[in-house]
Write a structure and sequence with these properties.
The protein is of the alpha+beta class and 577 residues long. Among the domains are: 36-177, Orthogonal Bundle (Arc Repressor Mutant, subunit A), CATH 1.10.10; 189-322, 3-Layer(aba) Sandwich (Rossmann fold); 480-577, Tetratricopeptide repeat domain (Serine Threonine Protein Phosphatase 5, Tetratricopeptide repeat), CATH 1.25.40. The chain contains 22 helices and 14 strands. Strands 9, 10, 11, 12, 13 and 14 form a six-stranded mixed β-sheet that branches. A five-stranded antiparallel β-sheet has the order 4-3-2-1-8, with helices on one face. A three-stranded antiparallel β-sheet has the order 5-7-6. Helix 14 runs antiparallel to helix 15 (446-458). The radius of gyration is 26 Å and the shape is globular. It starts with a helix and ends with a helix.
């Protein structure tokens, strides 16, 4: 394929399955729960207002519904999934939507996410309302100023009444918003497809050196099924790294689970396909075959899933399912080992990954994905300044990526690799063209949307980053810290310090050693006037990279927007870098 053809490939940047905002819809027809006191605040659920005799704030309907649901479960942790079901019934929204609603409630209370008195974030679980809650029976027409803390007359309704009213409120709100139980025809075509998630295969036994096999089987099964136009695949496949304890944001129709164990020269694989709506097992099979039959197992699993779900597959897709990246099982194993090391993103592991990729290529010189992996290893040397000659490393990365594309132009991942290398060379428009081609080959390729979003920020268009990364999160909610970093970076340049802080903090919770996330956290603290916390982050950055300087770091940073570059440099200079 010629480069001009790659650059001209058309693909929409719109969010898959994007929905109109429902926060602005009038929900006054809903039957709300009783008014309530939360700490020193009086909450008028009908008026969507909170007050404490000194200040008064109006909450949007969804923010109020969120607050009411947390109040109903005060003192208990409410999972994000339960909040989605309660506050946005029948609507698919991103994780970021919930975060924004929590932020709005916190702002109204004057609460601090770092030291919360009202809404506490419970890492990896959900949210908890900490303040005492009292529901008020009867009318709430009296002015809140007259209800001083020492003279309030509280009528506590029975628990049964509260639960009933909450249920009525949620059902009535759903009715008032006129949300269909099933996707409307006007939704995106991809939203009408059956959705399937491949959960990370479990490694059986105690030989953790074989963990790459479980990771590789998961990755390649997702890759195979993503080639089908009749299926929307959600899963943990990620070139950018992964995390596996978050549930998908799309409502999943089917789930694939599996276990794998290598015993000597034999490979045991057990795969299950479930209907997620009722938990019924649709198909299950055990395989015990020589490790040399690994590709046959992968192909058979893919075909059995397609057959069981009765997905229509055209001739071209049949060829893609049958297409293997290499016929050499030893080369494939080396590739999987190298890939698992590459995702660690540390210098020693990156060097070992590069060595293993080369060995895989020696065994199979036509192994396109191994060339792509080698390209990423060289690009990491450049980006992280792990080599004394970064320009040579970047040239090698580009050469390896182009070789991969010449060998097999039908692998979406190869376009992603070349796009990543192009972004490091600050060739952003070319990178976006390559990513659009990747998406045209695989509509479920979350990392393609994520990288496209990251590049938009580099170009000075952070507002365009948000819908692209939200799409990536919906398609691959377990991808890990980088998606949060991309969102936090975009919010920083949009001037939304609170959202930037939330997302960067999430990124650092998943990868505390990431210098870029530390830099943006320090920049956020400077921008919001918290210089003491900014100084602490500066010390953390120096601990991670003792010779860190702003000039050296920005030398390989692919930001091309001059205003944003100057803003970042000025912030780093304030920190003494």
């Amino acid at each position: 394929m010629k480069q001009s053809e790659v650059d001209s490939v058309d693909s929409s940047d719109a969010v898959l399955g994007a929905k109109p905002s429902v926060d602005t819809v009038d929900a006054s027809a809903a039957v709300p729960p009783p008014d309530l006191h939360i700490g020193d605040w009086f909450v008028e659920t009908r008026a969507h207002r909170i007050s404490n005799g000194r200040r008064e704030f109006k909450l949007e309907p969804k923010a109020m519904a969120l607050l009411v649901h947390l109040a109903q479960h005060a003192g208990s942790t409410v999972s994000r999934e339960r909040l989605f079901e309660a506050v946005w019934p029948g609507v698919i929204v991103s994780d970021d939507t919930l975060t924004q609603a929590v932020t709005k409630v916190r702002k109204a209370f004057g609460d601090n996410a770092r030291n919360p008195r009202y809404i506490e974030t419970v890492p990896k679980l959900g949210y908890r309302l900490r303040a005492p809650v009292h529901f008020v029976s009867g009318s709430s027409a009296a002015a809140p100023a007259a209800r001083k803390p020492g003279a309030r007359l509280l009528f506590i309704g029975s628990l049964v009444l509260i639960v009933s009213l909450i249920a009525v409120f949620i059902v009535a709100e759903r009715s008032s918003l006129k949300l269909p139980d099933k996707p409307a025809p006007a939704r995106e075509a991809s939203d009408q497809l059956p959705t399937l998630t491949v959960e990370p295969f479990k490694l059986l036994g105690e030989d953790w050196t074989q963990a790459y096999l479980a990771q590789g089987l998961t990755y390649d099964l997702i890759t195979d099924l993503s080639k089908l136009s009749g299926l929307l695949v959600i899963g943990s496949r990620s070139v950018m790294g992964q995390k596996t304890d978050v549930l998908p944001m799309y409502p999943v129709r089917y789930r694939v689970q599996g276990e794998v164990q290598r015993v000597g020269s034999q490979l045991r694989v057990h795969v299950h396909l479930y209907d997620a709506r009722n938990g019924r097992q649709l198909w299950s099979e055990r395989f015990l075959r020589p490790i040399d039959n690994l590709f046959e197992i992968q192909e058979e699993v893919s075909r059995q899933i397609v057959s069981t779900l009765a997905i229509k597959v055209d001739e071209a897709e049949h060829r893609r399912l049958a297409h293997r990246y290499t016929d050499n099982v030893q080369a494939y194993e080396l590739f999987l080992q190298a890939q698992s090391l590459l995702l660690v993103r540390l210098e020693p592991e990156n060097g070992e990954a590069r060595r293993l990729f080369r060995q895989a290529i020696e065994m199979d010189p036509s192994f396109a994905r191994a060339y792509g992996g080698l390209a990423l290893a060289y690009a990491a040397d450049f980006r992280n300044q792990w080599t004394s000659d970064g320009d040579v490393a970047l040239q090698r990365a580009q050469a390896m990526a182009r070789t991969a594309l010449e060998i097999d132009p039908e692998i979406p991942e190869v376009y992603w690799v070349l796009a990543y290398v192009s972004a490091q060379k600050r060739q952003h428009q070319q990178a976006i063209g390559l990513l659009r081609k990747a998406v045209s080959l695989d509509q479920s390729f979350a990392d393609a949307y994520a990288l496209m979003g990251g590049i938009k920020t580099y170009m000075g268009q952070p507002a365009e980053t948000l819908p692209l990364v939200r799409t990536a999160v919906r398609l691959n909610p377990d991808a890990g810290y980088l998606y949060f970093l991309l969102l936090g970076r975009a919010y920083f340049f949009l001037g939304d310090w609170e959202q930037a802080l939330i997302n960067i903090s999430e990124a650092l919770e998943r990868n505390p050693a990431n210098i870029e996330a530390r830099i943006y956290l320090a920049a956020i603290r400077v921008a919001s006037g918290d210089y003491e916390e900014a100084a602490w982050q500066r010390d953390e950055i120096l601990a991670l990279g003792q010779e860190f300087t702003a000039a050296a770091w920005l030398q390989t940073y692919p930001m091309t927007d001059r205003a944003q570059h100057a803003q970042l440099l000025a912030t780093l200079q304030k920190l003494g870098f």
